[in-house]
Amino acid sequence: LAFNFIRQGLKCGYVALEESVDRTALGLLGLALNRRLQFDEDPFKAEGFEEAWKSTIGTGQVYCYDHFGSTDPENLLAKIRYLRVSLGVDFVVLDHISIVVSGIEEGDERRTIDNLMTKLRSLVEETGVTIILVSHLKRPDGKGHEDGARTSLSQLRGSAAIGQLSDVVLGLERDQQDEAQKNVTTVRILKNRPASVTGVAGMMTYNLETGRMTESPFTGEDGGSSEF
């Protein structure tokens, strides 16, 4: 999503709390080169690296927050406000909300996420920034999500406010142990405030060589196949 928005000329603020800024940069550069650049012994020597840099990181449209792990919610809000108000980003990727509060030793995690979501929503309304928020899921009864279990709003981890205050919620489903389908992700619209359309949006196949996800034929809920 970030890569495509950048290619459309939008400014991106990237807050990835489980990876380094180098890893984020290599991910974006790899998409431009159609290869998983982070596995190269010397990615800077990859053919076309300079052109890829100029079209992504080197555009001046990408701002990465250099921080790993949990952070004070108020500090995070201040950083996102700065990205929008001072740097003029169009959207912010926050990956992921659970880790923001994971290091808080005292207090109620649910209430902390409730408060953070309310303030994030207020920031969106005040500044007009778009926030793409990643949330982990609670483990369901029976089959787990890593085995292809269906996602639902009730499984958003930490707080119901994540679903309540978001305009659109997408669930990603993939059976990692199915040899034929382990790289295929079903995209399910769990909430859609603007258009009120929910259900399966389609399927995406991850390419292990290019690192890209491409639209693939939709296999219906009953196992039947249909073209999209």
State the main characteristics.
alpha/beta; disordered C terminus; 228 residues; four-stranded parallel β-sheet; globular; 29% helix
Concise description?
The protein is of the alpha/beta class and 228 residues long.
How much is the radius of gyration in Å?
19 Å
The ordered H/E elements are HEHHEHEHHEHEEEEEE
Distance between the ends: 20 Å
Strand order of the largest sheet: 2-1-3-4
Largest sheet: 4 strands, parallel
Mean pLDDT: 86
Q: Strand share of the residues?
A: 15-25%
Shape: globular
Derived from helix and strand composition plus strand pairing, the structural class reads: alpha/beta
Low-confidence runs of at least 5 consecutive residues: 222-228
* Extended strand count: 10
Our count of helices gives: 7
Proportion in helices: 25-40%
Topology readout:
Layout: H1 2-7, E1 12-16, H2 21-33, H3 49-55, E2 62-64, H4 73-85, E3 91-95, H5 97-100, H6 109-127, E4 130-134, H7 161-165, E5 168-173, E6 184-192, E7 199-206, E8 213-216, E9 218-219, E10 225-226
Parallel strand pairs: 1-2, 1-3, 3-4
Antiparallel strand pairs: 5-6, 6-7, 7-8, 9-10
Helix pairs in contact: 2-3, 4-6
Report what the structure shows.
- This protein is an alpha/beta fold.
- The strands form 3 sheets. It has a 4-stranded parallel β-sheet. The protein has a 4-stranded antiparallel β-sheet with strand order 5-6-7-8, with no helix packed on it. Strands 9-10 form a two-stranded antiparallel sheet.
- The chain starts with a helix and ends with a strand.
- The chain has helices spanning 2-7, 21-33, 49-55, 73-85, 97-100, 109-127, 161-165, and strands at 12-16, 62-64, 91-95, 130-134, 168-173, 184-192, 199-206, 213-216, 218-219, 225-226.
- α2 packs across α3 and α4 runs parallel beside α6 (109-127).
